[in-house]
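C-alpha cells incoming
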C-alpha cells in the first residue's frame, strides 16, 4: 500500500464545530502508514484537543494551507469560497459536497482538476452509509427545532407539540420517509404530535405505519400534499434523490395555503430543498418568514451537536478514507466519485447540471 499524506483542516462554515476524524480515527490512519496533518484547533469545537491528536501520531500544523497541502484532504462540509484557493490538480478531496446545489463549487473543482469524492453519494447495499449518521442526527434535531420555533418566542403560532387537556396536539407532516424523515417522525411522535408521513414508496409508508412511527400516510402527489400541509403546524422536508437536486414536494402555492405561524424545516436544503420557498440559512440566522410561515433551512443542522455528530461521522468515514487512500477504484467506494479530471462522473450530479 502506498502511504499518503492526509490533511484534516478546521471547518470554516458558519458555526460549524464538527470534525471529520476523531483522534482514534486519525490513529488508525497513522498505524496504516499514512502521515496525517491536523490543523491546530480542528477538533476543539467537538471536544477533541490538539494533544489528543498528537498522542496518536498526527502532525499538528498551524494553518489551513498546511493541512490543505496534503494530497488527500478530508473534511466535513463543502469547501467555502476562500478555500477554493487551495484547489489543485493533484489534490483528492473527501467531504460532504452536495454539488447539485453548489454550481460555483462544482465549477471550481472542475477547473482546478481536483478529484472530488462525496460522502453523501457513496452507496453500499442500497443505502448511503456516510449520509445516514448525519441524516439520523438531522432528523432527531428537526423535531426539536420544529417544536421550538412553533413556540411564540420562536416566531410560531404558539402551538405545543403534544397539546393539552382540551387542546389538540400539533399536526406534523414529514415529506420523505428515509433515515432523516423517519427520525423526524419518531421525534415528533415522541412529543405526542400527530404525524403523517409522505413518500413515493408504499412499502416505506406501510413499514412506518406498522411500526407506529406515523399515525397516517399519503403517497406523494401535489394536490394531496397541498391539502395536507394546509392543516399542518409543522412540515419537515426530507425528500432525497442521491446526487440530484431535491424534488420540490411542496409548491409555493401550497405554502401560501398554510396557517400563519406554522413552521417548515427543510432538511433537504443541502440539495436545493424540497419546499419551493426554502432558501439556505445558517446557524447564526436560522429562520425567516415567508407567507406567514416560519422557515428553518439550515444547511448544517448536525453542526450544533458537534460531539455526537463528529463521533458518528468519523466512525462511518474512517474505513472509507483508508480505502480511498489505498485504492480509489475499490468497489466499496461505489458512487463516491463526483468530479474526476475536470469531468462530472456521478450520474445524479451529471443530471443536475446537464439534464
Amino acid at each position: 500500500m502506498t502511504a499518503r499524506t492526509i490533511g484534516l483542516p478546521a471547518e470554516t462554515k458558519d458555526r460549524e464545530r464538527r470534525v471529520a476524524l476523531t483522534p482514534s480515527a486519525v490513529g488508525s490512519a497513522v498505524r496504516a502508514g499514512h502521515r496525517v496533518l491536523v490543523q491546530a484547533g480542528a477538533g476543539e469545537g467537538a471536544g477533541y484537543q490538539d494533544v489528543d491528536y498528537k498522542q496518536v501520531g498526527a502532525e499538528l500544523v498551524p494553518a489551513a494551507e498546511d493541512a490543505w497541502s496534503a494530497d488527500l484532504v478530508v473534511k466535513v462540509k463543502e469547501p467555502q469560497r476562500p478555500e477554493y484557493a487551495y484547489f489543485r490538480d493533484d489534490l483528492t478531496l473527501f467531504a460532504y459536497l452536495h454539488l447539485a446545489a453548489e454550481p460555483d463549487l462544482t465549477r471550481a473543482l472542475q477547473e482546478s482538476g481536483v478529484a472530488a469524492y462525496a460522502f453523501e453519494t457513496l452507496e453500499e447495499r442500497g443505502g448511503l452509509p456516510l449520509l445516514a449518521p448525519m441524516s439520523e442526527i438531522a432528523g432527531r434535531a428537526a423535531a426539536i427545532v420544529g417544536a421550538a420555533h412553533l413556540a411564540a418566542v420562536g416566531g410560531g403560532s404558539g402551538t405545543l407539540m403534544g397539546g393539552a387537556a382540551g387542546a389538540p396536539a400539533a399536526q406534523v407532516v414529514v415529506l420523505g420517509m428515509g433515515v432523516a424523515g423517519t427520525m423526524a417522525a419518531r421525534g415528533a411522535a415522541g412529543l405526542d404530535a400527530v404525524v403523517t408521513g409522505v413518500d413515493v414508496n408504499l412499502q416505506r409508508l406501510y413499514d412506518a405505519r406498522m411500526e407506529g412511527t406515523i399515525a397516517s400516510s399519503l403517497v406523494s402527489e401535489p394536490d394531496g400534499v397541498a391539502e395536507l400541509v394546509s392543516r399542518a403546524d409543522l412540515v419537515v422536508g426530507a425528500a432525497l434523490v442521491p446526487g440530484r437536486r431535491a424534488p420540490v414536494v411542496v409548491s409555493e402555492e401550497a405554502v401560501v395555503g398554510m396557517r400563519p405561524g406554522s413552521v417548515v424545516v427543510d432538511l433537504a436544503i443541502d440539495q436545493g430543498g424540497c419546499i419551493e420557498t426554502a432558501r439556505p440559512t445558517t446557524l447564526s440566522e436560522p429562520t425567516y418568514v415567508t407567507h406567514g410561515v416560519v422557515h428553518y433551512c439550515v444547511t448544517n443542522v448536525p453542526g450544533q451537536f458537534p460531539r455526537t455528530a463528529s463521533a458518528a461521522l468519523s466512525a462511518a468515514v474512517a474505513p472509507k478514507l483508508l480505502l480511498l487512500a489505498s485504492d480509489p477504484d475499490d468497489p466499496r467506494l461505489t458512487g463516491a466519485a463526483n468530479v474526476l479530471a475536470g469531468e462530472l462522473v456521478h450520474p445524479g450530479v451529471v443530471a443536475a447540471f446537464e439534464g
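note: The chain has eleven helices and 15 strands.
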